[in-house]
Amino acid sequence: MRVELDKISKSFGPVQANRGISLTFEAGRIYGLLGENGAGKSTLMKILSGYQTPDSGRILLDAVPQQFRSPLDALAAGIGMLYQDPLDVPPFTVLENYLLGQPGGLAIPRRTAADQLRQLGQHYGFDVHPHERIEDLSLGERQQLELLRLLSGGAQLLILDEPTTGISAEQKSVLFNSLRDLARKERKTLILVSHKLEEVQDLCDQAIVLRQGDYVGGAKLPCPSRKLVNLMFAELPRRAPRPRPVAGTPQLELRDLVVRTPRLALQPVDLSLHAGEVLGLAGLEGNGQELLLRACAGLLPLAGGELRLAGQRQPRLDYLAARKLGLHYLAAGRLEEGLVSGMTLAEHMALVSQNGLFVDRAASRAQTRRQIKQYQIVARPGSRVEELSGGNQQRVLFGLLPDDAQLILAEHPTRGLDLRSSDWIWQQLDLRRREGAAILFLSADLDELLERSDRIAVFSGGRMSRLLDARQTSLNELGHLIGGGA
Amino acid sequence: MDANWIAIAASIVLQSSPLIIAVCGETLSERAGVVNLSLDGSLLLSAMAGFAAAYVSNSLLLGFLAGAGVGALMALVVAFGSLALRQSQVAVGFVLTLLGDSLSAFLGQNFTRLPGIWVPRLPIPWLKDIPVLGPIVFNQDLVVYFALVLTLASTWWIFHSRPGLALRSAGERPEAAFARGVAVRKLRYAYAVLGGALVGVAGAAYSLDVKIGWAEGHTRGLGWIALAIVIFGGWSPLRGALGVLLFVATRSVISVVLQRSLGESSVVVLNALPWLLMLLVLLVVSGRLGGQLLARLPAPLQRPLRGLMQAAPPAALGAELKEG
Question: Which residues of chain A have a CB within 8 Å of the CB of B182?
Fold first, then answer.
């Protein structure tokens, strides 16, 4: 089946997620869809698989225009999508999950259906146990079942969204082998949406790169990863020179630090961060840099190794204790984790700076007014935080940061902010740094990393690279390391 | 068995029946993801409406239909409030509980303490002659038989039929159900209204069969009991029915035994005992203790028992439905 996307556009409010994207997918080929977060990959795939309708543009299957009103429509036409979090029903048995939505009589012919399912599994090389519960299976096994469901539903084109996140290496090789077979032997079309360049290089025939809603180019694979990274991240003007840091006392020291989550295990990390230093963490999302930052903030338990704050060993760090030691964490989800929706600026100020039973409203308002002036926030003390723009919310968060912060951990400090706000944020961080604070931040913006950090660590598949001197490295080297190179 | 005990057992079965019907109805609704918290008010209003309709028309069928209609309407309000207006199911349900309670008192003023009609006994030939079981289960009336059939049928429907898969998936993971072509919104409306109608039938069964007649606050409290038993029953009609029987039985036995030996006042205090027993059973069934006990049993027994003991609420219960 030949699938064409013809000038697909879609916007959500002011955000243009897809801008006139035209692409063609041929039968029997494997495509890798690449792009930063927010590049429009998932919107495009949701449109192709019937979860969303485009604002304009057409989908053509073998030159016949189609209109999908639901995912079921799309599957009936031969397009199936496998989500990172499989769309199954955890308390169901494998068989029940497989039968859900399939036509048939009132009663379920369990025995024959179970045999059918086993045979189907055998055909594609998966080991299927119809009477196990979905919630007892691993993510990889659940993916295999979703694949079977889509294939038995008649899918000719399969979209796989980050299919290797959270599955074992063994399951990955089983998956990739069956995907290759599907393309070569059964002439299916496959689209792999991935942040992991090595996987795309390994599996795909062709790469397609989106950036900020536009199709910016493609490449026959394999090709140098550098080329793909350059397509994914637009190059910006060169960075300005900046002063050498004065390395002070170590604020944060990590020895063989290990963090594990069900999705990803972070390989042992050794690191030390000194007062007055800025360390940037690079990597495509989900490669481990978030885990490191959250573990340092006491938000994730340590699975092993040693963590020292200002020279003191912290065997069991929790966030509230860490705050008392001068550690502060600026979350990426400003409204989810940083601020309290429904509360005013003045109330936020009272929350962090006052103790006791009663709120001194006059004092907190006066204090808030001072902060509004100092941090140039466009708001009044009585404004609720959710009414503010992203840039102003970030300024409020900075206003709440106490003066004696020793170690600032920041997740995407300027994500979604305009140039002026971003610049202002970094002025504030530089000010803190000059006062002796150490700063650890992660960002998806390579230019920001190169421009603002003293040193950079790159994460790929849970492994941290050697530390790079930000003055000596280049976009190319970062791209190489992000793609899993050494 | 002592004829006296058989009579007590038969009365326990009769008294349990409306509660079993209400539990089955609410279980169906919650399995689809809609919590109808208005049960206490629904039962009162449908008991009143059922009694009044039967009294005026002299027809039992119209009485039950009126009850079912009132229950379905209450459930429709909850479903509309949450599925169309995106309001909290809990809030809408609470308000309706209060509304049903007051409205039944107000509208039922003219029907208070009147002699009405009731459901006649209908022994089933042959079956009623089975020793012990016959007189307890099959020498009863249509309400009891309906409760029995409903329990078995809804259990089969939920866990063993193809539409049951769609029903459970809508309450567990609506986005997955949607992806496979289940019309989640329609399905939630349908089961909420069906469940509400069953609750209405249960209300009418009180005023026309188990506690014949109408007075203000006639069934007050029973709705909350039904809601608690749905949870106790792990969202399975069969387990819910067993829970109802356990609850009603302990209450009857306690009152029979204690009325003989103690005065009235201690009976009131000890009315709390069924609840304590239920808490205890719940701890054994769904706590770690249950798992430990289960592990000691022979393997062929473990599997069906584990299925019976699983008691997690539908994951998307009460959650707002997102547009796909």
Answer: 100-101
Three-class DSSP labels, B29-72? HHHCCCCCCCHHHHHHHHHHHHHHHHHHHCCHHHHHHHHHHHHH
| Nearest Cα to Cα of residue A167 among A284, A287, A283, A262 | A262
Radius of gyration of chain A (CA): 25
Q: Which amino acid is at A351?
A: L
Chain A neighbors of B176, CB-CB under 8 A = 87-89, 100
Q: Which CATH architecture fits A247-326+404-486?
A: 3-Layer(aba) Sandwich (3.40)
**Tokens encoding A61:** 């299957």
Express each pLDDT in B285-320 by its tens digit: 666 676 677 777 777 777 666 666 666 788 888 776
Which position has the token pair 């199911």? B89
Give the C-alpha separation, A188 to A184, whole Å: 8
Residues of A with Cβ-Cβ distance to B169 under 8 angstroms: 89, 92, 100
- Nearest in space to B31 (alpha carbons), one of B320, B323, B312: B312
Tell me which chain A residues have a C-beta less than 8 angstroms from the C-beta of B315.
90-91
For the domain covering A3-232, report its CATH number: 3.40.50.300
CA–CA dist A141, A255 (Å, integer): 35
Q: Check: CB of residue A379 under 8 Å from CB of residue A392.
A: yes
Q: Please, which pLDDT band fits residue B265 given cuts at 50, 70 and 90?
A: low
Q: How far is B103 from chain A (nearest CA, A)?
A: 36
Asked if B179's CB is within 8 angstroms of A72's CB, the reply is: yes
C-beta atoms of A100 and B166 within 8 A: yes
Q: Which residues pair with A456 in a beta bridge?
A: A280, A468
CB contact under 8 A, A100 and B176: yes
Order across the sheet with A56-61: list the strands.
Answer: A15-25, A3-12, A56-61, A64-66
Predicted TM-score (pTM) of this structure: 0.74
CB–CB contact B161 A108 (8 Å)? yes
